Amino acid sequence: xxxxxxxxxxxxxxxxxSGWLATLLVDWGHPWIRSIFDALGAPxxxxxxxxxxxxxxxxxxxxxxxxxxxxxxxxFTLLEDFGYLPRVAFNLDSIFRKAGAHGKQALTMSMxxxxxxxxxxxxxxxxxxxxxxxxxxxxxxSLCNGRWPTQILIASIFIGAAAPPYLAGxxxxxxxxxxxxxxxxxxxxxxxxxxxxxxxxxxxxxxxxLPPYRPPRLLQTLYTSLIDRTAFVxxxxxxxxxxxxxxxxxxxxxxxxxxxxxEWFINAVDPVAVIFGLNxxxxxxxxxxxxxxxxxxxxxxxxxxxxxxIAGAGAGAGVMFExxxxxxxxxxxxxxxxxxxxxxxxxFSLLHNPCSTTIYTIYKETGSLKWTLVSTFLPIIMGLxxxxxxxxxxxL
Length: 396
Fold this sequence. Notes:
The protein has 16 helices and 2 strands. Helix 7 (148-159) packs across helix 8. The chain is mainly α. The mean pLDDT is 86. It has helices at 2-39, 44-82, 84-98, 105-112, 116-122, 129-138, 148-159, 168-196, 218-253, 261-275, 280-288, 296-308, 325-334, 339-350, 356-366, 369-394; strands at 255-256, 259-260. The chain has a two-stranded antiparallel sheet. It has one domain (1-200, 240-395).
C-alpha cells in the first residue's frame, strides 16, 4: 500500500513541474533557440538537426523525466533510510524464493518503477551473482516513469473511451494498474524460467539483521537521491537523447524519391506490424526513440501526421510535439488506430527493449555482451508473442 501511495504521489506531484518545464524548454525555449539560428542565417538542415531534432528530444526528456525522479527517488531513499524497505524485502523473500530469486529483488524492482537504469544499478545490493543477474534481466518489466505517461494517455483515449462515461476514469486507471501488475507477474515468471534453464542454482538464504527504525538523514538522503540517482541517470539519458533527436529529424527529412526514409520504413514494416495489432509508425517510433521512452508519444504523433498528411497539426516533418488528449485521440484515429492498437501499445510499452540508457547500464554492470543482448531482446520477443496472441483472440 505504501509503495502504491509513493507511485501516486510521484505521478501527481510531478505533473505540475513537468508541465512547467515543458512550457519553459519546449513551448518557449524551442522557438527562441530556433529564432537565434534563423537570425544567424543557419542552413535549414542545420537548424532542423540541432534544434528541431537534438534540442527538442533533450527538452522532452528533461521535462518528462526529471520531475518524477526528483519526487520518487527522495521518497524511496527516505523509506530505505527509515529501515522500512529492508523489512519489505525480507517479508517478500518467500515469494521471490519460489521464483528462484532473492527477496532484495523486490527493492530493485521497486526502484525500476522510477527508472530501470537506476533499478539495474540497485541490484548491487544482491550478493549472489546469479540472483543479481536475474534481477537485472527482469528489471525492465517494471514500468519506469518514462512509460507511465504513455500508459495513462492510451488508457484514457482508448480503454476508458470504450467504457460508459461514468466509468471511463475507473476503467482507464484499472487498465494502467493491470499493466503494472502484469509486469510484476512477468518479472517473477521470467525469474522462475531463468532459474529453471540458463541460470540454474540454489536460492541463497536471506539472512538480514533488520536495521532499527530511525529518523531519516535528510542531507544524505537528498544527496543520494538527487546526485547519485537522479543526476546520474538523467545525464546518461540526455547524452543518448540528443543524437536520437537528430536521427528522428533526419529520417523524416531525408528523401529517397518522393518518400522520406521514415515513410519507406513505415510502409515496409506496416504489413508485419498489423499481425501484432500495431502499425509501422509504432515500430519505427520504438526504434528511433530507443534513448528514452519519454519521446515515444511525441515521435508517434509526428510520424502519424507526416504519413497521413493531416493538415494543421504539428510543426513539420521531424519536429516532435504533444497535444491534449482529445486532439491526440483524433490524430491517432485518423492514423487508423483502433481499440486493439491501444491495447497492444500498452502491452508493447511494457514488453519492449529497455531504453539505451538502461542497456548501457546493464552492460556496465554485467560486463557481458551476452547478457546485455538477452536483457534487450527477451522483452521484445515476449512483447511480440503477447501482442500476436491478443490480436488473434481479439479478431476471433
